[in-house]
Amino acid sequence: MRKAIALTAILLGSTALLSGCDKVKQAVTGKAEIANTAYPEKVFWGDTHLHTSNSPDAFGFGTRLDPEAALRFARGEEVTSSTGQKARLARPLDFLVISDHSDGFATVKNLYEAPRAMISDPTLLRWYDLLHKGPEGSMQATAELIDAKAKGTLPPEILNPKAAEDMLRKDWLSHIAAVERYNEPGKFTAFVGFEYTLMDEGRNLHRNVMFRDSGNKAATVLPLASFGTVVPDGLWDYMDAYAAKTGGKMLAIPHNSNMSNGRMFMMTDPSGGPMSAEYARRRLAHEPVVEITQIKGDSEAHPFMSPNDEFAGYGTAGWEIGDLMMVERSTPEMQPGSYVREALKRGLLIEQRTGANPYAFGVIGSTDSHTSLATGDEDNYFGKHSGVEPNPKRATEPQNLGTRDGRFGWNYLASGYAAVWATSNSREAIFDAMMRKEVYATTGPRMTVRFFGGWDFKAEDLKGKWVEAGYARGVPMGGNLKAGGKGAPSFIVSALKDPLDGNLDRVQVVKGWVDRAGKAHEKVFDVIWSDMDGKRKLAVGKVPAVGDTIDLATATYQNTIGAPELSTVWSDPEFDPSLRAFYYVRVLQIPTPTWMAYDMVKYKLNLPPEIPLKHQERAYTSAIWYTPA
Amino acid sequence: MTFKDNLRRFLKEPLVHFLIAGALVFWLMSGRPPDLGERRIVVNERVAGAIAQRFHDSFRRLPSQDELDGLIRDYVQDQVYYREALALGLDQNDEVVVRRMRRKMEGLAVADAEAATPSDKDLQALIDKDPARYAEDPRTTFQQVYLGADTPENRAQADIKLKQLRAGQSASGVPAPLPARLDGASASEISGMFGDEFTLSLRNQPTGQWLGPLASGLGLHLVRVDNRAAPAPPSLATVRQRVENDWRAAAVAKSRDESYARILKGYDVVIELEK
Fold it and tell me: Using the beta-carbon criterion (under 8 Å), do B195 and A499 form an inter-chain contact?
């Protein structure tokens, strides 16, 4: 009888069961050790936020490429996208974290491949039929799925991960096996990870989780689902339990604070009470890095809080109007808890009160692509999901999850990537660099940016071995200035263009501080810009614009303006040693065409005037903090 | 090993069961009207067991008697409708059915390749076919002085500084987060930092002397190539991981294509369209 059942199960089941087991066996173990440099000499580029066909929404939106295809693409191979288009990165990435949603991990793929007769839940049955109806039905099913997740009305089969644990384990192990096969220390680093899709109604509190360890360790746990909770504490418990059990490490990366309606970076603890020092320390210990920019908008700064920053508000159009699901519209008083610069200021305020800073995090960019394709280049952009892979309509189509309103294809950014100053291209070195926050974000271009803070840096330092000096006499991005220095802190700032992209317009230092009355402030300093002694001489306090060489008829630009490199030593002219402060660097490129401008030329489109065709891409570094002695 | 052993082993392979099962499914669904024998729907222990098993796969428990009865009623209804629908040819021109059948066939075609383990000989053959793909990049050790954007002034500066360097003096460039010396850098590392154009022009320069300026995606550089190491031919030991990944990806694609080509041979495809 048992044997008969097994055979029939095979007869009627899907291929997944068999190939899943075999893939685990094929996992490569025991890699050669690679050497670390004495200090980080190279910046490594990667994406910590990529979805494949294992993500329920990605599959529903039409993505059929699996983790293996995602890994091959990221390391530079050509793959055929889910819509049949040849895709290849202009330059490979150095590392990748596939972060498929743990909530319903692989369930839509499994639902799609399940025998219809076995589906008894009417909602699942409806989605099954929609999924098989073609692209439009599939979109509809996915929108309903995401909506049901936000409303807490998912069918019990998906909601109850215990019931589906064996299935989940099989899919998780198969995922880990693919990651292990492609992890090549020194050449390409593949991390095990997942996305913890935490939401409070429609408010986005998502975190990506990445493992420092081998697949063998990661396989001792299952990806944690977020169902039934609206606070991240359960995730931190899970991370602690994993560390205690295996001696391994995980870190979590919050993202899309821009659609949290103020919940991502609260002044209080989640219950609304004052945040304790213990809570603040716990948060920072688990979440040392935040994703500041990605396809669904940029979360650096908003003009509402930063009216004097003429470059604030990049990539906020569409995203600023409500939470992720548009359940709740955003109001101005919600915004401070949704943006990173404001969070850095709030961190100082909380630290002043409690002695601990929950928001002393570093920043990275990543794509959040749901296509298995980690594309961050404007001229080679494969879209947020497979429905918006290159096609003539993608800029103007509404992008409303389900029946909601307000967002369009052009609101998506072809952004961004994570830059990591690590001592080797390996899991351990890259993870550790994230823990010490020696990382930065870009909206796609691969600018190289160094940032050191100390007490005695002088302009002459730039003539010598200034990187060594930076490490020896100061701290790199992500560090804390050593207290007790004389005078004002000084900073070595050096930025170099992407060799394949636009020149640089300017380098800015963004300072935030808290005064004695307990009020937070910010100021943006232009510290160096192109042609600053010539045509762009400082007139009345404001740096003249860099200009614009874009030809929209061909979507091209010239590097005849701006500069390939901008380096300086800058000292804070308004330093007050008694006040807490942070400093981070923002690098602006000259204006270049947006992905919509490239689409316009490629497909010969007439686009409505609200669609931006030019922008200034940018890099944001992690901050350096000053704490009074 | 005797033929019998081979056969026994062959029959034990789950994959073989799978292929046989697949053939059976295909045969069942090939669209013939059911003959009289197929008007018999038998629910025996085996069928009920399968139904229970699938319920268990979904819900992690066995169905209750009531649930099982319901599922069996549903099974019978499915079978009745399914056979009638086939008899009426309702599976024809139904895109969902067509696509689902195709997916099953493709799944069967690649299951073999996905589960296979390549021999060292297979892998070595793949390396021999395209050694350049698996060869380590040539390694270049060089020094560079970065002079900033490619402008007439900086070109003039380049000439002055080149003379200094050739006279054994030091010459400083523009400060930038760019290493002054790269040790054993691969072509892709150099391209990532300077752009492809620079990597190519670096390739043809003599070693041991300062020269330039060479243009890159960043501007102008004076360069001294100190050493160039030709890569050792790729050995299986060093590239096993990559070549095995490639082997599997290629094997899956190949069996999908071959199986299609094989089936296609049995068909006459006539395109009755004007060109």
Answer: yes
